[in-house]
Structure formats: C-alpha cells, structure tokens
C-alpha cells in the first residue's frame, strides 16, 4: 500500500510492483483468471487478447462505496473514462442488471483483470492510484490490453537489462512470438500508456529497459495515438469520436458562450411549420438544431464546439438538414480554418458531409466548431446529426440521400425493387457493406438484435412469425441500412413498429407452417443506396430453380457461424441451392408443408443458423432479386440432409397484398 504523501505518479512509472505487491498478480498489476494463466503458461496469450471483448465495445461498471464516497477518486475515474471515450469507440455504462461488469473498489494497490471475464471482476484503486494516467492504464487492462513490452518485436526497439532485474520478477519481461500475440498491425509504441517504465522491477535502481534512441517510456499522462488505434481495431471500429445525440450532447461537446443563442437537442419535428427536419437522420432518435423563430434576429449565431482527438489523418462526417425559405448558413471550422460551408435551402432531407483532414493531433487537443447563422425569418432551422470522426480516409463517392419515398399502392409491382450494388460475392463470407439493401435487423428497444427481415415496401418488413410471437409493437425496433451487428456505419435508419401481423395459419396444419409475419414501420423508410426494396414474387414471376445446383440463391444475416457458436460482427452471406420438398422430406419426415421452402446441400456445410431467423432467402431473375423465403427453422446448422427451411413467400403472396392493402 502507498501512503497518500508518496508520489504515486512517480512510483507507478518507476516501480510498478509497489502498486501491486500481491503475489497473485501477473506483470505487477494484472490479475488473471485460471484460464488466462493456463493460456500464458501454454503460450497462447495475446498482446491484446482476442477473447474477453466487451460486447458492442460497452463496458458495464459499478463503483464500490469505498470509492464512491471519495470525490477525488470519482473525478479521476470519470476523467479516465472520458479520455477512452473521446479517443476510441469504447463506451462505459453504469451497471443495471448485467452479470458481467467491472467493480471499481479501494483495494490493495492498483490492478485489474485482463479483458471481460464474464462475471463480476474487480479493479483495485488504492488511494495512491488516484491519478488520471494510472486509472487509464488499469482500464486498458480491463478492456483487454497486456503490456507493450511483451510484443515479439520489442528487441528491435528496446533492450532488456536482465542483470538489473530482481530474480523473482524476470518472468514479467516475457516476450511472445508473432504466432501468439496480436498488436493489431501497429508499430512499436514507446509512448504507450501500457509500456513499462525504464526502471520497472529494478533490484539496484538502475534501468531494466534501455532505449537506444533515447525515447521516453512508461508515460502515464494519457493514451497515445497507437493505444487508441489498437483499441479501436480490437473492437472493430475506427471511430475516434462519434455522437448521434440520442442521449443528449456527448462527451466533448459544449455550447459556446460567445454567441447569441444555443443549439437544441430535439426529436421529431421542429416546432415551426415549413422548416427543420421531421425526425432525426435514422428516423428514430434525436438531433441538434438551431430554432430560428422569435425572439431570434437576423444574423444571430449559435455556436457549439467539439473538443476531441484523432490520430493524424481523419475523416470528419456528419449529416445536415437545411430546409426553409429563410435558411441562412452553416459553417464548420477546424480550429480557425473553415472546412465546410453551406448556405440557403437545401431541401427537406438529410444530406451527408465529409471533410478529410491530415493535421489532427492527439496531444494537442483540437476543436471542431459548428456555427449556425439565423436568416431573415423564422423558417430557417438548421440541424445536424450522426457526427463521427474516423481514423483514416473518407469514403469515396458518397451521394446525397434522396428524400422520403411515397409508398406505392400495395399489390402493384415496385419498379425499383430488387436492385443492389454490383459487387463480387463469395459464399459464406462477410458481405460488402450495404450490398443487400433490403436486409432488416429486428432489435429490442434496448438495442439487442435477435432476428432478421426483408424490406418489401417502404413501410413494411417481412419476417418469420416465430420471431414476433408474443411480442407487442412497442417492444420492437427495426434497423435498416445496417452492416455491423453492434455499432453503426452511418447508413442506418431506425424505426419504431406500429403493427405486427402474423399469418392466421401459423403452426397449422404442421409445426412452423405459414411461418410468416408482416411488420409495419412507424413511417416509410428513406430509399437510397444503403436501403432498398426486394421484389416479392407472384404467379407471373420466373419459376424457382429447384434442384438446380448450377443456380443458387442467397441467404444473409448476423446469425451464428456454427451451431452454438459465436455471432459475427458484420453481415454474412452464403449461396445455397433450392431443394424440392420431396428431397427435403427425406431429412425431415412428415415435417414439410407446401408453405415451406428448403435450401442447402445434401452434404451440408452452408445454411442459415440461429439468429438468422426471419432473414431473407433471395434469388435473382433477369437482373432483379426476389424474396423467395424467410428463414424459419432447421436442425442444427448445415448438417448433412438437414436443410434450412424457409417460409415460402410466393405461396403467401395474396395474403401479403391483402394485409398491406387493408392496413
């Protein structure tokens, strides 16, 4: 334990072992599970462990009363969390009912478990640990980081002076091979907050790590650019900062005090007629805007600032809405440089803006300024939404999205249905982003994805009846334009559900017969490159390629990769041949009905799996894609003669038309 009078910042940098003297600690400040200890002994540890990730890059936590009563400790914990959130896509959530979470407490020394253990895991912060950099370091362990000097390439950059290390601590300087450590393709980082100091575990006060180029190691000021990049790659996201405003202004956003009025966080339509958006960019959420009605005057300004970090080259992206007869101007500044300007009425639609910049610096906090200027009248509201700052280059060729599409009369052919980007498709792989634009994701109101669906009309999604059985419209959300199972890519549209209608013959005459349901969205989707309709086949559509191995159809979803296996991070796709019901009955005797369609290979190997329920089975005819099936059921995943079974959409086409027409 450290006395409060001792400089903990110095002790942590120079004598890491003093902060974690417990014999059960590894490398000075890491507590391992039994499985992790065995992995290390068997040579399977990773620099950033591939297991133990926090779902959705969201760490649930609680703060023990031993710390929550200490104002200094609370301030440091919050500042450390804020830096992780500002520089990476990691988010922190106060624990409610989560069984896996981090418990911050005042223990003996500074230490943490490594990665998510799947249950309550402690993170110890003795009074001598209440410093910004130390807490960032320990949270780094909880998120899955080991120490930087364990990397396989460390001998090219530093020299371990074994003669100065205590004999009992030499194991702490173990180096791992390239086959067992994951540094996420980043260069060696002298400035990492996870690096040992030069005198760690010294027996004589002399250096234990020598740096040839004179670089400083063991800093505990804050995250380095490479720390942030590694963590973002660990959690499959490149965002340095992002905010959709659904929970208000995010960390780093502040209202200016040198303007005449403030930006507002809002949802739904702005109060004034003939101006402003009717909803946020996703269709369900919040945005920020300037209200230009009385008492505002011409040329008054509302300024809001974002103070953040990036790692050199970065892409600033956001959506803007500028609609009304009196719209004046939106300006965006990076520091004192204007990087974006738009003036006048831009139409009643959200448009995407992207700005590439190569001069953002982690250690010199920069500021992005959004300036909205009031026009000559009250119809001049300006809104922004879905702000993101992404490491790397901007996406090429982003078109302005079209406005809301009026739904066509039900039952009529939708001329633009079944179109998708021309991309090369390989079976059983991650799909190209937005390459299946009708793919829908069914989610709980808390954001948990559990089933799929297909957009068949701007306000209607087809899915499986078993996905919605016993559920009310208010308990569901539909996400369109998604690519990631958890997290966002900027093309998503989220919708509330107002009606759920399952086929009246569901489960009759056999189990899972007529396993089809229609879900009506609160409002029509905005159809664009990322969100589109799939065609619904009818009696005039081409015949299905049954038992024709040369013509395959496609299944997509975020389902498990194997029976009982893990769920993928991104949308998956696979090609499957359609199978006649007579063949399918051989695998499922007395279980196949005319309202069902089977697909897959006799030998197995490709199939829709758990979590794909309700998702699309589509076939291409004459250049257009048609929805032939909604994923229903099967035994296991891709077993021999255990085909995937789907609700046959063309069999219930008249029911679909009747439901959409009468509702």
Write the layout of secondary structure elements.
Layout: H1 8-14, E1 25-26, E2 30-31, H2 34-41, E3 58-63, H3 65-68, H4 71-87, E4 91-94, E5 101-105, E6 110-113, E7 120-125, H5 132-143, E8 158-160, E9 209-211, H6 225-234, E10 239-243, E11 253-255, E12 264-266, E13 287-290, E14 301-308, E15 312-322, E16 329-334, E17 337-343, E18 351-360, E19 366-373, E20 382-391, E21 429-430, E22 439-444, E23 449-457, E24 460-463, H7 465-468, E25 476-480, E26 493-502, E27 517-521, E28 553-557, E29 572-576, E30 578-579, H8 581-587, E31 596-599, E32 616-621, E33 624-633, E34 644-648, H9 653-662
Parallel strand pairs: 2-6, 3-4, 3-5, 5-7
Antiparallel strand pairs: 1-2, 6-7, 8-9, 10-20, 11-14, 12-13, 13-20, 14-19, 15-18, 15-20, 16-17, 16-19, 21-29, 22-23, 22-25, 23-24, 24-27, 25-26, 26-27, 28-29, 28-32, 30-31, 31-34, 32-33, 33-34
Helix pairs in contact: 4-5
Q: Can you characterise this structure?
A:
GO terms for molecular function: metalloendopeptidase activity; serine-type endopeptidase activity; zinc ion binding. Residues 241-396 form the MAM domain. Belongs to the peptidase S1 family. Residues 425-661 form the Peptidase S1 domain. One of its GO terms (biological process) is proteolysis. The protein has 663 residues and is of the alpha+beta class. The chain is built from nine helices and 34 strands. The strands form six sheets. It has an eight-stranded antiparallel β-sheet. A seven-stranded mixed β-sheet has the order 1-2-6-7-5-3-4. Strands 10, 12, 13, 15, 18 and 20 form a six-stranded antiparallel β-sheet that branches. Strand 1 (25-26) and strand 2 (30-31) form a beta hairpin. Helix 4 (71-87) crosses helix 5 (132-143). The radius of gyration is 28 Å and the shape is globular.
């Amino acid at each position: 334990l450290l006395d409060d009078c001792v400089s903990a910042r110095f002790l942590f940098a120079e004598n890491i072992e003093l902060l974690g003297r417990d014999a059960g600690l590894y490398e000075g400040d890491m507590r391992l599970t039994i499985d992790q200890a065995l992995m290390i002994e068997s040579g399977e540890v990773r620099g950033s462990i591939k297991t133990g990730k926090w779902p959705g890059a969201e760490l649930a936590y609680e703060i023990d009363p031993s710390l929550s009563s200490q104002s200094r400790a609370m301030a440091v914990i919050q500042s450390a969390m804020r830096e992780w959130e500002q520089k990476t896509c990691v988010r922190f959530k106060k624990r409610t009912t989560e069984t896996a979470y981090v418990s911050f407490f005042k223990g003996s020394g500074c230490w943490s478990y490594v990665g998510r253990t799947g249950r309550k895991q402690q993170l110890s912060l003795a009074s001598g640990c209440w410093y910004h950099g130390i807490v960032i370091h320990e949270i780094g362990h909880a998120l899955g980081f080991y120490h930087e000097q364990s990397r396989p390439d460390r001998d090219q950059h530093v020299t371990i002076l074994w003669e100065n290390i205590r004999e009992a601590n030499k194991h702490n300087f173990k180096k791992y091979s390239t086959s067992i450590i994951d540094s996420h393709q980043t260069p060696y980082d002298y400035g990492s907050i996870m690096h040992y100091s030069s005198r760690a575990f010294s027996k004589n006060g002399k250096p234990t790590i020598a740096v040839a180029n004179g670089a400083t190691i063991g800093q505990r000021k804050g995250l380095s650019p490479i720390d942030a990049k590694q963590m973002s790659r660990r959690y499959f996201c490149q965002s340095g900062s992002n905010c959709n405003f659904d929970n208000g202004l995010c960390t780093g956003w502040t209202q200016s005090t040198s303007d005449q009025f403030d930006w507002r966080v809002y949802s739904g339509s702005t109060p004034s007629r003939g101006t402003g958006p009717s909803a946020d960019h996703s269709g369900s959420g919040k945005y920020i805007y300037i209200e230009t009605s009385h008492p505002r005057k011409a040329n008054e300004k509302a300024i809001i600032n974002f103070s953040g970090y990036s790692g050199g080259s970065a892409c600033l992206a956001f959506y803007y809405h500028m609609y009304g007869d009196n719209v004046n101007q939106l300006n965006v500044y990076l520091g004192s440089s204007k990087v974006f300007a738009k003036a006048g009425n831009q139409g009643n639609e959200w448009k995407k803006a992207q700005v590439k910049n190569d001069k953002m610096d982690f250690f010199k906090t920069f500021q992005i300024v959004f300036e909205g200027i009031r026009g000559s009248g009250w119809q001049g509201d300006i809104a922004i939404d879905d702000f993101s700052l992404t490491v790397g280059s901007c996406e090429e060729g982003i078109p302005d999205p079209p406005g809301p599409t009026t739904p066509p009369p039900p039952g009529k052919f939708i001329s633009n249905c079944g179109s998708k980007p021309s991309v090369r498709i390989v079976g059983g792989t991650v799909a190209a982003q937005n390459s299946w634009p009708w793919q829908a994701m069914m989610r709980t109101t808390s954001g948990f994805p559990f089933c799929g669906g297909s957009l068949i009309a701007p306000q209607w999604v087809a899915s499986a009846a078993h996905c919605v059985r016993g559920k009310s419209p208010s308990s569901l959300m539909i996400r369109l334009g998604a690519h990631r199972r958890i997290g966002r890519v900027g093309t998503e549209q989220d919708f509330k559900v107002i009606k759920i209608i399952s086929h009246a013959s569901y489960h009759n005459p056999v189990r899972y017969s007529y396993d089809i349901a229609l879900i009506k969205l609160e409002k029509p989707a905005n159809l664009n490159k990322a969100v589109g309709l799939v065609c619904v086949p009818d009696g005039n559509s081409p015949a299905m390629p049954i038992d024709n191995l040369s013509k395959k159809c496609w299944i997509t979803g975020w389902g498990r990769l194997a029976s009982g296996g893990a769920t993928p991070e991104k949308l998956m796709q696979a090609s499957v041949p359609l199978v006649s019901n007579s063949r399918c009955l051989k695998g499922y005797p007395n279980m196949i009905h005319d309202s069902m369609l089977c697909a897959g290979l006799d030998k197995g190997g490709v199939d829709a799996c758990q979590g794909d329920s309700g998702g699309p089975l589509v076939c291409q005819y004459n250049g257009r894609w048609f929805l032939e099936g909604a994923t229903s059921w099967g035994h296991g995943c891709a077993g021999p003669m255990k085909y995937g079974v789907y609700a046959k959409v063309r069999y219930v086409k008249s029911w679909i038309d009747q439901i959409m027409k009468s509702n």
